[in-house]
Amino acid sequence: MHGPGRLRDVVREELVARQLEEQIVGRFPVGKRLRVLDVGMGRGAQALRLARAGHDVTGVEQDAASLAAVREAFAGEPEGIRERMRIIEGHAGDTGVHFLPGSFDVVLCHGVLMDDVEEPDALLAGVARMLAPGGMLSLLVRNGDAAAMRAGLSGDWAGALAAFCPPTSSYGLTRLTSTLAGIGAPLHTWYGVRVFTDTAADDAVLPDDLDAMLAVEDRAGRTDPYRGVAALLHLCGVRG
C-alpha cells in the first residue's frame, strides 16, 4: 500500500493527500476534471496522485534533482495519465510569467515557504492570482507557533529556548489567516501535519503498524488542541 521512504516524508505525503482529497470532494462536483497547478512540486507526489485521479496537472519546479526524479516517475505512468501532466522548469515566484490569472481550480504551494524566500507574502499573492473564482489554494508551511516542539521533545533545551523567539519570517496560524485574507483567498479550513512523528530519525524505517500510526496522525491533525502543535500547517483558502 505504501512505498518506501523516510517516515516523516511518508506521513507528510499521505496526510496531505487525504486532506486534499477531502477538500476537493467537498468543494467541486464529483467527476469534474480540475485544472491543478503545483508550485514547487518537488518530486511530484501530490501532482502524480491528482493526475491519477483524473485531473489536469501542471507542475513548476526549479531544482534539477527534483525535476529529474519527477520526470522519471511520470515516465512510468500510462499514456492516459502522462497526457494530463505538464512540467515547467521555473521559480515559484514566476507563475505570472507562465500563466494567466484565474487559470486554475486548485493551486498547491507545499513547502515553498519552508526555504528562505524573499517577500513571501508577495509570492503567495502571485500564486493566489492563478486561482479561478471559487478555486482553492492548498498551502503547507512550517508551524511557526510550535517551533520549539521538535527540539524540546528531542531534549535539545538550548534549541528549544531559541525557538521560543522565532524569526519574523516564520508563519503561524494568525499571520497566515491574515495573509490569506489579504491576497483574496480567505482561510476555509486548516490541518496539522506530523503531531507525533516529527521527531523520528532521518533513517527511521516504516513500522509494521503504519496504517494505525497514520490513523492517529490523521485524527490529531484535525483535532484541537493537537493540531496546533503539529510540525506543519496545511491551510486551504478559497478564492471568492
Automatic annotation (TrEMBL):
Keyword annotations: Methyltransferase, S-adenosyl-L-methionine, Transferase
GO molecular function: S-adenosylmethionine-dependent methyltransferase activity
Domain Methyltransferase type residue range list: 37-138
Annotated InterPro entries: Methyltransf_11 (IPR013216), SAM-dependent_MTases_sf (IPR029063)
Alphabetical GO biological process terms: methylation
Pfam family, one: Methyltransf_11
Gene3D superfamilies: Vaccinia Virus protein VP39
PANTHER family linked to this entry: METHYLTRANSFERASE, UBIQUINONE BIOSYNTHESIS O-METHYLTRANSFERASE, MITOCHONDRIAL
Protein name, entry field: Methyltransferase
Organism: Streptomyces gancidicus BKS 13-15
Lineage: Bacteria, Bacillati, Actinomycetota, Actinomycetes, Kitasatosporales
